[in-house]
Amino acid sequence: MPQVLKLARVSPQHFPTLDPIPWPEYKTVNASGMDLYADLDPRGIDIPPGELAAIPTGLKMEIPEGFEGQVRSRSGLAFKNRVVVINSPGTIDADFRGEVLVGLVNHGPQLFHVNRGDRIAQLVICPVVTPEVLLVPETELTTTVRGVGGFGSTGVNDTPSKS
After folding, report:
1. pLDDT single digits (tens) 9-41
2. Under DSSP, is residue 144 helix (H, G, I), strand (E, B) or coil?
3. 6-130 classified as CATH 2.70.40.10
């Protein structure tokens, strides 16, 4: 049986005298994400360099049990403007029923303006595994070749260095 993502507009709508922003949709047959749009007043909002803003989408949703919504940066905004989802991917739990807000941060050198109806992020629906948690002493954890190596411990590339 196919999974169903239920979408609803916030009530009351943010700007009832304006045409509603588009519903999220898959733009191509193999797209993994749907675009989320900014539900702002016609003036939009400015995000200064180094600052962040919570952008309303005007949407609430019901994600199927056993799944989560992942709010991800749009590659074009990230690459061209250095504007990204602050906690990418942001998680929308299946039991959340509030309005979806997108936290954007401007890592670029210039002011970034978000207009009403701009595509600001992607929504990807992913399965969630919730394993049973078993608390054990550290000595019961298996050892691996990597061991405790963390941040950068596997190197940057596989090219041997020249001596």
Report:
1. 999 999 999 999 999 999 999 999 999 999 999
2. coil
3. yes
Extents of the domains making up the chain: 6-130
How far apart are alpha carbons 20 and 44 in whole angstroms?
15
Write the CB contacts of 90 (distance below 8 Å, at least 6 apart in sequence): 70, 71, 72, 102, 103
CA angle 93/95/101 to nearest 5° reads: 55
DSSP 63: P
Q: Which two tokens stand for residue 117?
A: 């109806």
What pTM value is reported for the model?
A: 0.85
DSSP helix/strand/coil, 62: strand
Type of residue found at 163: S
Burial (Cβ within 10 Å: 0-12, 13-18, ≥19) of residue 112: buried
Q: Is the torsion defined by CA of 11, 13, 16, 20 positive or negative?
A: negative
Cβ atoms of residues 60 and 39 within 8 Å:
no
Structure tokens at 68: 């989560």
